[in-house]
Write a structure and sequence with these properties.
about 0% strand; mainly alpha; about 130 residues; single chain
Length: about 130
């Protein structure tokens, strides 16, 4: 893709976001717009919860990831600690848990199977 197309796409996205922000702040008190935004926020919550469940099924496969998730939920959701404080506590713990352990990361590859040499081609007597 030529570089100018990337710039056009980027500027189009910036213009779109600025236009939508202008429209929102101009018409946010109109009842019809309020109702539409209320429905859009419900859809956004539903999409977020769907992604949480999908990601959780793939990532929360052992006791340590579940414990880290629960600790993050308790610290930020229930105790209302600031996110940066929670990350300062939980990020090093999760990195220590996920850091590669001593030993080979994968089992050593199997040697290729031994193959007998092919017999020479049969030649008719001359």
């Amino acid at each position: 893709m030529p570089p100018w197309r990337c710039w056009v796409c980027a500027w189009f996205q910036v213009a779109l976001i600025l236009t939508l922000g202008f429209v929102y702040f101009t018409f946010k008190e109109v009842p019809a717009v309020k109702g539409a935004l209320h429905g859009a926020s419900a859809a956004a919550v539903a999409l977020t919860l769907t992604m949480v469940f999908k990601t959780g099924r793939k990532c929360l496969t052992g006791p340590v990831p579940v414990a880290l998730f629960a600790a993050a939920f308790v610290l930020t959701g229930l105790l209302r600690w600031p996110l940066l404080v929670s990350l300062a506590i939980l990020a090093p713990l999760s990195l220590l848990w996920a850091w590669p352990r001593n030993g080979p990361p994968h089992p050593p590859p199997h040697p290729p199977p031994h193959r007998a040499p092919h017999p020479p081609p049969h030649r008719a007597p001359s």
